[in-house]
Amino acid sequence: MLRTRLDPGDTKTVDLDDVQDVSMRVLLGRGHGMPNFALRHFVVEPGGHTPHHRHDYEHQVVVLEGTGEADSAEGVQSISKGDVLYIAADEPHQFRNSGTTSLQFICLVPLNRRNGEEVPGS
Amino acid sequence: MLRTRLDPGDTKTVDLDDVQDVSMRVLLGRGHGMPNFALRHFVVEPGGHTPHHRHDYEHQVVVLEGTGEADSAEGVQSISKGDVLYIAADEPHQFRNSGTTSLQFICLVPLNRRNGEEVPGS
Under CATH, to which class is A26-110 assigned? Predict the structure, then answer.
């Protein structure tokens, strides 16, 4: 058994276009020998957001702390602790922190894209 | 985007051998059109436990609430809210609630076994 802990102080800043005040950590990914999918911890500070983008692999998301907005094909929806979200492959999406405390969520991805290439951040 | 919520009142009793006071719900699984892996919510009541077993697929676990024990190839270890665990395929394991409140965790599995058959509860 491998083990680690959720720790918002142990995430690293995500330095990508269209990303604001987001940090993340791969909790269990290909670097830990995962065979199929990867578990990542995201922290979005108030006013911050992930990129508005789409890609050829899915997300499963569980909101752990805070409040925000999910912008997806269904429009903008409020999200908060306890919400469970699924973004299908190729669906445009963005997560934004609209609150006053950190928005924290876990986000699952498969290890590989459709063409067999590695999913970034897996 | 699909969405649901973690709700310990919305889980169903798991009626299997060597399972005591456990309920679960498939939050995002093959019935929701997942392509690769499934997200399940487990609630183990005080004194309860999952089966001590092994199988040919992995688990990723995030403890959401409560305290308990994980019995694995490394022996018995205490677990609590915020712990992230990985049980590899073929590793014997059991989760037990040693506390006085519900032990809640999410548990990820791939959709398919090595031989292509469906993973139970996916």
Answer: mainly beta
Alpha helices, DSSP H, located in A9-114: none
Taking an 8 Å cut-off on Cβ atoms, the answer to whether A60 and B37 are in contact is: yes
DSSP state of B108: E
Coil, helix or strand at residue B4: strand
The continuous run of DSSP H or E covering B22 comes out as strand B20-28
What is the band of A113 on the pLDDT scale with cuts at 50, 70, 90? Answer: very high
User: Does ipTM surpass 0.95 in this model?
Assistant: yes
Q: Which residues contact A20 (CB under 8 A, 6 or more apart)?
A: A47, A48, A49
Which of A121, A91, A92, A90 lies closest to A107 in space, CA to CA?
A: A121
The architecture in CATH of the region B11-110 reads Sandwich (2.60)
Asked if residue A71 lies in contact with residue A41, where contact means CB atoms within 8 angstroms, the answer is: no
* A1-19 residue pLDDT tens: 999 999 999 999 999 999 9
Cross-strand partners of B106: B41, B62
* Residue A76 contacts B where some CB pair is shorter than 8 Å: no
Taking the domains of chain A in order of start, what are their residue ranges?
Answer: 26-110
- What does pLDDT average to in each consecutive run of 10 residues of chain B (122 residues)? 97 97 98 98 98 98 98 96 98 98 98 95 96
Are B48 and B96 in contact, with CB atoms under 8 Å apart?
yes
The answer to whether the CB of B68 falls within 8 A of the CB of B97 is yes
Which of B36, B56, B74, B104 would you mutate first to test chain A, the one with the most A CBs within 10 A?
B36
pLDDT value at residue B111: 98
Given this model, what pLDDT does residue A77 score? 98
